[in-house]
Amino acid sequence: MSALSSEHLLNIEDLTPEDIYLVLDTARSFKEVNERPIKKLPTLRGRTVVNLFLEPSTRTRTSFEIAAKRLSADGINFSASTSATTKGESLVDTAQTLDAMNCDLVIIRHRYAGSPYILTQNMRAHIINGGDGKHQHPTQALLDLFTMREHFGHIEGLQVAIVGDIAHSRVFGSLAPGLRMLGASVTAIAPPTLLPARPDVLGADVCYSLDERLGQFDVVYMLRIQQERLEESPFPTLREYSRFYGINSARLAALKPEAIIMHPGPVNRGVELSSAAIDNARNLLLYQVNAGVAVRMALMYLLLGGESEA
Ligand code: CP
Which residues line ligand 1 (CB under 6 A)? Predict the structure, then answer.
């Protein structure tokens, strides 16, 4: 029985604003635990958590694995190369196989949008979407919301620019609605070739020029160019893209004095962010990674029936 309104987290919209604040408050407690010398809690002893990562990941997979260990759950890790999907097993059959082993929680990353939903139809376990194709990445959105709230003390009223490869971005797919739910304003900044065919369906203000509006944002959230998902070349070269849409020293200087830079990682160094931007104190990328463990601990705890206090 989940302490959230939903038994699963497939899309950010599965959560109410109250659920999101409950996750963020609970994560704050777990972040404090993560700073202690002894970081382990007995909270999920005896529960089985499966990491089913059928697409590459460093941050999401590792942080879920660490989160499960810190809560004393039994964690099992599958990757594409070690699962029977390489022998042609379907996702439905994989789900039914894991279900027969009485897992409590499955985190899935998959190249196809909607894969987490297939698990919910074939398993009794709680399911968390760890990123499905170009669709959603709700735990990334939660750790990003956590980061903004801890930095500014609030999310309501923030002006957030999300810059770059909007068309292929599951991060945008979860973060933009999450920000809107909590009262922030969202502007998508990209060349037309990296926006969806109908930018009006984004529910965000759209701008083609980063320099035109850079000085007005509290948060400049840079998206990775997803070279593995590009079907055609949407810009002449990466260097050309970076010249118009990358954060470099000149653009750092043009930011609002209190503005921060965020990026979900992995970064194409020298494309979305120059080395100077990566090393700048306004770049909260590693804070985001650190927060990711606490947010994922909070989600596991709440989905598996925890109370609001960690
Ligand atoms: N941000 C993110 O999802 O990174 P990984 O692909 O390394 O998990």
Answer: 57-60, 131, 140, 264-266
